[in-house]
Amino acid sequence: MSCSHGLVNSYISSTGGFPRLFNPRTGRLLVRFDNSRRVSACLNINVEASTFTNSTKFGFGESKEVMASEASVLVGTYARVPIVLLSGKGCKLYDVEGREYLDMTSGIAVNALGHGDQDWVNAVTEQANILTHVSNVFYSVPQVELAKRLVECSFADRIFFSNSGTEANEAAIKFARKFQRFSQPDGKQPATEFISFTNCFHGRTMGALALTSKEHYRSPFEPVMPGVTFLEYGNIQAAKEAIQRGKTAAVFVEPIQGEGGICSATKEFLQSLRDACDDAGALLVFDEVQCGLGRTGYLWAHEIYGVFPDIMTLAKPLAGGLPIGAVLMTEKVASAINYGDHGSTFAGSPLVCKAALSVLDKITKPGFLASVSKKGQYLKEFLVQKLGGNKHVKEVRGIGLIIGIELDVSASPLVDACRNSGLLILTAGKGNVVRLVPPLIISEQELEVGADILSKCLALLDEN
């Protein structure tokens, strides 16, 4: 069968088959839904043989063997999906059997440049041959260079590096507490409490967990850090009343909630938080771990609103797949921090910072962010066109390439069906939102492929 350039041209038959079996020689794909209907498709792709690595070299055979081994040696903290990924290139991933998947998860909004970006690979390889790790006992050039770049392209005056988003938020908690103590030299009791919002997610360490609203994350580990008040996201009046001088150390808010269901703040809401924090002497912290660094089509999500924080936390896409977090802050906040107040052995290593510099180089190139905005708008319009008539679709929302599709039922059956059809997507919200956070380099053709698979798989929601 033939197919148009770069697009899925599929048909449904009643015969069985393997779930999206990929033949790297012919470029032919076979996909299969859970209900045994088969979709046959072809893509115009060129994959070098080196993309595929035989898993037997690692001591494993097929996926089932890997999954069985994992169950016997790792702590069961992850409800993994039943595929074992082995390699990737661009926006495509391949499992150990050679099946191909269009990746619209980006490792949960991490792989902004996709998989195996050559400039990123070159930067990491070059730095690995020079210097990988020295600890923060010593200075290193890539760390200073990255800090300078982040200062130059943001509101911030100072940077602190960590290893993840939750660590960045943990550091921000400590810095906010220290700032309040520093601001009360006369011995008065400093403000120590925090405000966060419904449907937020700030991490899983004990401090960041205390700021995370979903009770099922917190309840197994209580008591967590006390002194956190959760307010309704977007409720201006409630925030004005709750933010109080001598009580509120900081307000943590995501300009766009990712885990919470791709919910965007309004300018009025964020400005009201800025004004209330200024009046109360509290710090305003923007968590841009998921929505920052180009995901919205702006370098920083808060630029959309023209409201600026005292502290901003970053992580996911910053080093293109290597572990990094960052806390950006004003000089006012940084002046309260002294030697020994916080630290990390691995944070800001030469290797990771060099990788992050290569990511910044690409994302800040003229035209890159505009292309993200253009593709995001195209995807939203295409999704509305393809999915808008389905009775289960309540809303398609988002900015840039962070898109949510809200359903009136659980999104899990749709996610499973899409995976079996070669498309990787995520859930969000209360499990009823499909979250699309593809690599920022994704093409419009690939977006059409993803939307086409979503459209076909939506029919399965009725059957479930």
From TrEMBL:
Gene3D superfamilies: Aspartate Aminotransferase, domain 1, Type I PLP-dependent aspartate aminotransferase-like (Major domain). InterPro entries: AcOrn/SuccOrn_fam, Aminotrans_3, Aminotrans_3_PPA_site, Class-III_PLP-dep_AT, PyrdxlP-dep_Trfase, PyrdxlP-dep_Trfase_major, PyrdxlP-dep_Trfase_small. GO terms for cellular component: chloroplast stroma; mitochondrion. Its cofactor is pyridoxal 5'-phosphate. It catalyses: N(2)-acetyl-L-ornithine + 2-oxoglutarate = N-acetyl-L-glutamate 5-semialdehyde + L-glutamate. The keyword Cell inner membrane does not apply. It is an enzyme of class 2 (transferase). Pathway: Amino-acid biosynthesis; L-arginine biosynthesis; N(2)-acetyl-L-ornithine from L-glutamate: step 4/4. Its EC number is 2.6.1.11. The keyword Mitochondrion applies. Keywords: Amino-acid biosynthesis, Aminotransferase, Arginine biosynthesis, Mitochondrion, Pyridoxal phosphate, Transferase, Transit peptide. Transmembrane segments: none annotated. It is found in: Mitochondrion. PANTHER family: ACETYLORNITHINE AMINOTRANSFERASE, MITOCHONDRIAL, AMINOTRANSFERASE CLASS III. Belongs to the class-III pyridoxal-phosphate-dependent aminotransferase family. This is acetylornithine transaminase. It comes from Macleaya cordata (Five-seeded plume-poppy).
